[in-house]
């Protein structure tokens, strides 16, 4: 139960799509490639519409120019048009002209796909403008697809009445995850410390009370884990308080008995200490105690004198025997301080005599010989004579006719000159070196270098943004490198407020590298 005591459990939905979600993405690809102009991607709240739309745009960027904007309460028609034009063409202009007319003024695109998230925040006039845009562009042969995400109830209201006989938008609904996908999704969301407490039966009980949408599962699981952690903290606090009161009561109850036991253990130690102290004091005052004892008991003194006389006689009889033994042993002169001193003069004389003898013996062992020393001058190496010439001279001296074979000319292999490596502009090489699974924020696409410099200087993002050049010679302004799409979205708050209004959207470096390397 210790795993439940963590202060907060944060779960995040995995970015990897499930098979049922991939089926919706495949439907979007099919509809866009079949020249379907307006598509409604609808579902309940938490069904994963935004995630599906972003993953779809990553895949669609391989064959079309894409743009992703998110509508909110402050979104106006002019602002929405500016965001779409900025992401498709890299131009920034806010005016009252319709979206269709402004797109026609730009260079023609082979295929353009625009995703507008949170369609409930769009005005009726902009919805009508989207319909007219795809109709007019399709009439002049320019393929343009607009995908709007929103709640199912709102999407059904956008369908035209049957009696009008007007073709409405294509409706694609996001269904809940199937049962197996829900179980795997919960297992992926659970923290590592919690997975051992959530078996298959408990997960199924948890899923019985919800519909099975990814956002709903994430929210409910977060609430369940937080509630369990709070309950565990309250239970632990109560148990600690009860245990503390019980321990205080038991301590107060048994304290007299423990004090008596401690006193009983100290008595033997005290007695032993007293006995040892008396014995030591008696040893120090042994003579005084003996004299006092003789005064008190004079009868005990006579046996002591008799014993002393017997001891003296025994020692006298043993003395001749000890003298005889001492005479039989060799005698040694006693050591004195003088005998231990070293005499330097005598030692030096004996050493000199020994040295002469050693020199005489060593000289007789040496064999006669001479050692010559000299310096050798190193000569420069002379060029070797040709083999044919030396052979001719030796043959001429011997009187023999010789035929010399002419050497074949050496053929030098031509080495190809190294091709100079083309330097990539701006941070293009940096973008190629990033991990393909990482994400960045795409801010704008600009075709002219001078406009690119003015754009970055005007918004103050020259120092913290990167630029790479696409294969079509256009420049893309991006911001940072992040390991997940969630972190890339959160990093948008680090940009200036004016740039945040352009709705920069997360893009994988796999798509960035495809833009650079595509022909």
From TrEMBL:
| Compositional bias ranges of the Basic and acidic residues kind | 236-247
Q: Which residues form the SPOR domain?
A: 433-508
Q: Tell whether Transmembrane is among the UniProt keywords.
A: yes
Ranges annotated as biased composition (Low complexity): 300-327
Q: Which Gene3D superfamilies match?
A: P-loop containing nucleotide triphosphate hydrolases, Sporulation related repeat
SUPFAM superfamilies noted in UniProt: P-loop containing nucleoside triphosphate hydrolases
Q: Which UniProt keywords apply?
A: Membrane, Transmembrane, Transmembrane helix
The record's GO molecular-function terms, alphabetically, read: ATP hydrolysis activity; peptidoglycan binding
Protein origin, superkingdom:
Bacteria
> Which residues, by range, are in coiled-coil regions?
none
Alphabetical list of InterPro entries matching this protein: AAA_22, ExeA_AAA_ATPase_DNA-bind, P-loop_NTPase, SPOR-like_dom, SPOR-like_sf
Keyword Lipoprotein set for record: no
Q: Which residues cross the membrane?
A: 266-284
Q: Where is this region: Disordered?
A: 236-259, 300-332
Xref: PROSITE patterns: SPOR
Name it: Uncharacterized ATPase, DamX
UniProt source species: Idiomarina loihiensis (strain ATCC BAA-735 / DSM 15497 / L2-TR)
């Amino acid at each position: 139960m210790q795993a439940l005591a963590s202060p907060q459990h944060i779960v995040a939905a995995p970015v990897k799509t499930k098979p049922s979600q991939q089926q919706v993405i495949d439907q979007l690809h099919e509809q866009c490639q079949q020249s379907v102009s307006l598509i409604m991607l609808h579902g309940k709240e938490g069904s994963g519409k935004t995630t599906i739309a972003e993953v779809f745009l990553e895949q669609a960027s391989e064959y079309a120019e894409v743009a992703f904007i998110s509508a909110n309460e402050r979104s106006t028609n002019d602002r929405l048009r500016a965001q779409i034009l900025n992401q498709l063409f890299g131009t920034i202009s806010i005016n009252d002209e319709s979206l269709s007319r402004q797109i026609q003024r730009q260079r023609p695109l082979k295929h353009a796909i625009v995703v507008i998230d949170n369609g409930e925040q769009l005005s009726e006039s902009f919805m009508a403008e989207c319909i007219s845009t795809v109709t007019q562009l399709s009439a002049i042969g320019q393929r343009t697809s607009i995908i709007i995400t929103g709640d199912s109830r709102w999407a059904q209201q956008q369908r035209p009445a049957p009696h009008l006989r007007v073709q409405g938008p294509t409706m694609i609904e996001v269904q809940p995850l199937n049962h197996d996908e829900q179980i795997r999704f919960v297992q992926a969301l659970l923290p590592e410390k919690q997975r051992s407490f959530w078996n298959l039966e408990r997960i199924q009980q948890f899923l019985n009370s919800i519909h099975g949408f990814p956002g709903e599962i994430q929210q409910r699981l977060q609430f369940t884990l937080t509630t369990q952690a709070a309950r565990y903290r309250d239970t632990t606090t109560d148990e600690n308080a009860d245990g503390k009161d019980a321990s205080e009561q038991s301590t107060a109850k048994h304290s007299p008995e423990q004090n008596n036991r401690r006193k009983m253990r100290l008595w033997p130690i005290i007695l032993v200490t007293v006995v040892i102290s008396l014995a030591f004091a008696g040893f120090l005052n042994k003579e005084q105690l003996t004299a006092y004892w003789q005064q008190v008991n004079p009868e005990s003194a006579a046996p002591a004198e008799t014993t002393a006389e017997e001891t003296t006689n025994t020692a006298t009889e043993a003395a001749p025997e000890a003298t005889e033994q001492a005479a039989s042993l060799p005698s040694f002169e006693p050591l004195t301080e003088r005998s231990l001193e070293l005499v330097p003069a005598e030692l030096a004389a004996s050493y000199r005599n020994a040295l002469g003898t050693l020199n005489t013996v060593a000289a007789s062992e040496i064999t006669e010989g001479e050692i010559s020393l000299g310096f050798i001058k190193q000569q420069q190496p002379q060029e070797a004579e040709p083999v044919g010439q030396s052979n001719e001279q030796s043959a001429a001296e011997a009187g023999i006719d010789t035929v010399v074979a002419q050497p074949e000319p050496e053929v030098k292999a031509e080495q190809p000159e190294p091709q100079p490596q083309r330097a990539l502009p701006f941070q293009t090489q940096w973008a190629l070196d990033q991990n393909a699974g990482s994400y960045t924020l795409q801010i704008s696409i600009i075709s002219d270098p001078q406009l690119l410099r003015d754009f970055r200087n005007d918004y103050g993002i020259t120092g913290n943004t990167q630029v790479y050049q696409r294969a079509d010679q256009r420049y893309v302004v991006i911001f940072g490198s992040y390991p997940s799409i969630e972190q890339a979205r959160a990093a948008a708050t680090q940009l200036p407020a004016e740039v945040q209004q352009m709705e920069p959207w997360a893009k994988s470096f796999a798509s960035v590298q495809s833009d650079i390397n595509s022909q």
